[in-house]
Design a protein that fits this description.
The chain is α/β, with parallel strands linked by helices and about 240 residues long. About 40% of the residues lie in helices and about 15% in strands. It has an 8-stranded parallel beta sheet with strand order 7-6-5-4-3-2-1-8. The chain is globular. The structure holds pyridoxal-5'-phosphate.
């Protein structure tokens, strides 16, 4: 029998980071240009703790002593609150990003908990986030999610509306936008979506790109991704 998933987490993290660094070196990008986000949705706090305590090679996301993974992603506000309540205090240098759709009525909780929100995708949410940022004095980094495949069932700003939306966020709500995020359609070759998002980010003067998951992260590396979001590759399949 294979060992339980949690025994493999540290090794998986190290292997993924090594693959990432090799692939980046091959294309002439420095390893520190890309952060490795460990996506822990559906996995228990005990699995997160394994990653927090792992010896990893990730120069970009290590703690001050150079041990342990520190960059994590969750897709639901409530699940993140439940799992991270204790861990946040215990690992104060851990960074937690929201990568799932955000309802306006959870914006206050999201601003209170997360260091970055990758799923800003509508004007109402921009307004509520701006209010909460003002109120709480916390400023999570904001990524605009873009629906590059124009998929009806997917959230994200359309390509046609993107420039206007970013301008509204900046000028009307005073929000600083850190970058763009996308999830290419499962049925498509991902590279053209990554290329398009890179171009649109350049045009908007944005230098962060949240692109690439377990199945397609290597395809995102030549197109300027600065954050790959990996779940399965680190923690195994989500049951
Ligand atoms: C679940 C999820 C990931 C990680 O997916 P894997 O295929 O397990 O690496 C990345 N980004 C988002 C937005 C997700 O919801």
């Amino acid at each position: 029998m294979p060992p339980p998933i949690e025994e493999n987490i540290a090794a998986n993290l190290a292997n993924v980071r090594e693959r990432l660094d090799k692939a980046l070196t091959r294309i002439g990008r420095p390893p520190e240009a890309v952060s490795l986000m460990a996506v822990t949705k559906n996995f228990p706090a005990s699995a997160i703790r394994q990653a927090l305590d792992a010896e990893t090679l990730d120069a970009g996301t290590l703690d001050a002593e150079g041990r342990g993974h520190r960059l994590f992603g969750e897709n639901k506000v409530q699940e993140a609150q439940e799992k991270w309540g204790g861990l946040r205090a215990e690992y104060p240098d851990a960074r937690l990003h929201l990568i799932g759709a955000l309802q306006s009525n959870k914006a206050a909780a999201a601003v209170g908990l997360f260091d970055a929100i990758h799923t800003l995708d509508r004007v109402k949410l921009a307004r509520v986030l701006a209010d909460e940022i003002q109120k709480q004095g916390r400023t999570p980094e904001l990524f605009v999610q873009v629906n590059t495949g124009d998929e009806a069932q997917k959230t994200g700003v359309s390509l046609a509306a993107l420039d206007g939306f970013v301008t509204t966020c900046r000028q009307e709500y005073g929000l600083e936008i850190a970058g763009l995020m996308c999830l290419p359609p499962l049925s498509d070759v991902p590279a053209p979506h990554f290329a398009l998002l890179e171009k649109r980010a350049q045009n908007l003067g944005l230098n962060q790109l949240s692109m690439g998951m377990s199945a397609d992260y290597e395809a995102a590396l030549p197109f300027g991704t600065t954050c790959v979001r990996l779940g399965t590759a680190i923690f195994g399949s989500r049951l």
